[in-house]
Write a structure and sequence with these properties.
Length: 317
């Protein structure tokens, strides 16, 4: 593997300068107009769309955006990636909206006990809890919690509670998948992996260990080296896309239309009894056990959560 990319030329502005540039209604309207356009816009088209009566200041405002947020081409003005990111942040509602949804029962069913679940939303976080069993995580979270993470306000728009929960599952997968491959989904930098391990994991009827307030013994903590974007995942999630695991599920009738990593009542039999444990700490080695009926797949993983081996206990070999 080679070294870092050579000859990188960087044109930077400070965060203070960036916010000062964006803190103007006309400039934000310029970005929005370019976002809505299917092709680069001329100066005259932009001024007509954004500020038709502004004869003197429009050129000044456009000039402030040009080069960092807007690029000037032979065909006209267009958004740069930085400009696109600003508009997306506004459209998702993350920096402009703060909706709140009181927890209420939905038609969604718990994957662990098939009881109804509640969904609530506050401070950019969607939270889903089972109304009967212990869910996945306890402690400071409401009893039965099995989903609790950041979700853009726009994800609630025109969706039923059940559809919002499904969208949150999909979004979670879309974020955690590249992190499992060592890439930050927010800034494309590298990822550090650490582990939260319960040294005395015991679960009773609630399935929540009183020593770690969790259903699972080992959690993987992914954090970007650059922007510090974080995600927490059950350690064995990283094994579920390995060919040996996919084949094992397929042999036992998992419909390809039912995603393995989205834990629902439809696929609960395939994932709710999966366990992961530590077999060594220097370096880390993990064992994942996937039982289905009378068959079991045992997967060994290294400290980077790459699969080292996969063996069916029912194999005669």
């Amino acid at each position: 593997m080679g070294g870092p990319v050579d000859d990188v030329e960087t044109e930077e502005i400070t965060a203070t300068e960036a916010f000062a540039i964006l803190g103007n209604e006309t400039r934000m309207e310029i970005l929005r107009a370019l976002w809505q356009s299917d092709e680069p816009s001329s100066f005259a088209e932009l001024r007509s769309d954004v500020a038709p009566d502004d004869k003197g200041n429009f050129n000044y405002h456009l000039g402030k955006l040009t080069d960092h947020f807007v690029k000037k081409t032979d065909d006209g003005y267009d958004l740069r990636f930085a400009g696109e990111q600003i508009v997306r942040a506004v459209l998702t509602g993350t920096i402009t909206s703060a909706p709140s949804v009181r927890p209420a029962e939905t038609d969604e069913r718990c994957a662990y006990c098939d009881a109804p679940v509640e969904m609530g939303y506050t401070k950019d976080v969607i939270s889903v809890r089972c109304t009967d069993c212990g869910g996945v995580i306890g402690g400071d979270f409401p009893d039965g919690t099995y989903m609790h993470y950041q979700f853009p306000p726009s994800g609630l728009a025109d969706r039923t509670p059940e559809a919002a929960i499904d969208a949150a599952h999909v979004l979670y997968d879309s974020k955690i998948a590249p992190m499992m491959k060592g890439i930050c989904p927010e800034c494309a930098s590298g990822i550090d992996i650490s582990y939260d391990i319960c040294d005395d994991h015991q679960v009773g009827d609630s399935k929540i260990c009183p020593n770690c307030d969790s259903r699972y013994e080992v959690w993987a903590l992914y954090e970007c080296e650059h922007c510090r974007y974080r995600r927490k995942s059950v350690m064995w999630f990283a094994a579920l896309n390995h060919p040996a695991v996919v084949s094992f599920y397929y042999d036992h009738g998992l419909d390809e239309k039912i995603p393995i990593r989205k834990l629902t009542s439809d696929n609960a039999q395939f994932v709710r009894d999966v366990t992961g444990t530590v077999t060594d700490t220097d370096p880390f080695r993990f064992r994942v056990t996937i039982p289905i009926e009378d068959d079991t797949l045992v997967v060994s993983m290294d400290e980077e959560l790459d699969v080292l081996s996969a063996r069916r206990t029912s194999d005669s070999r």
